[in-house]
TrEMBL record:
Range of residues in the leader sequence: none
GO MF, one annotated term: hexosyltransferase activity
Protein name stated in the entry: Glycosyltransferase 2-like domain-containing protein
Coiled-coil residues: none
Length: 200
């Protein structure tokens, strides 16, 4: 069983589409809507407490899984602890840009230098969380980035799935590169550097 957790502290009008993309998977899953006004990490960790699957995936309320996402991810994860893959970035004006990581099987040092793992494409074995804990609730962004580096620092094996696994919505309210305000991006970079320094 694959458990898909939707961490949500606000429905910005996209949640219904995210749920439909989970229901339209070619492989049966369970989805858990973990909703509160607290952090993404908090909502993910509460979702993990409810999840019953042997595999865990997250889907933000503003993103969409491709129909083959879970089926292809399960094939790729055999013999590995977690996997990542390709994504399609899309905008409300109809623009779409594919994302294919430049490094398919990155080391810890690789993703400290440049995070090539598109966060929304990752599937984890449940025991990654059982062994190494959940997401860090002290972080206000970069939660999955920190967790992926934590796994690599512990010797977990990462594989690349050569499939498009997610449609990633780009908009101005994102905590990632969607918000182009200069002061915000400077604050964001400080937080990312703090995360990197944990593993240097």
């Amino acid at each position: 069983m694959v458990s898909i957790i939707i961490p949500c502290n606000e429905d910005r009008g996209f949640l219904k589409q995210a749920i439909e993309s989970i229901e339209n998977q070619t492989y049966q899953t369970e989805f858990i809507l973990s909703q509160s006004d607290k952090s993404v990490s908090y909502n993910i960790n509460r979702g993990l407490e409810k999840a019953t699957g042997d595999y865990i995936r997250f889907c933000s309320e503003d993103n969409l899984l491709t129909p083959n996402c879970i089926e292809d991810s399960l094939k790729a994860i055999q013999g590995f602890d977690f996997i990542h893959g390709n994504a399609i970035n899309f905008w409300s004006n109809g623009l779409e840009k594919p994302y294919i990581p430049t490094i398919k099987n990155p080391t810890l040092q690789d993703i400290i230098n440049l995070n090539v793992i598109h966060g929304g494409t990752v599937l984890y074995r449940r025991d990654c969380f059982d062994r190494f804990g959940g997401f860090d609730e002290t972080l206000w962004l970069g939660e999955e980035y920190e967790f992926n580096m934590r796994l690599l620092s512990k010797g977990c094996k990462l594989n690349y799935c050569n499939s498009y696994l997610q449609r990633y919505r780009r908009h101005g309210e994102q905590k990632s590169l969607g918000n182009t305000d200069q002061a915000y991006q400077a604050k964001r970079q400080i937080e990312i550097n703090k995360i990197k320094n944990r593993f240097r």
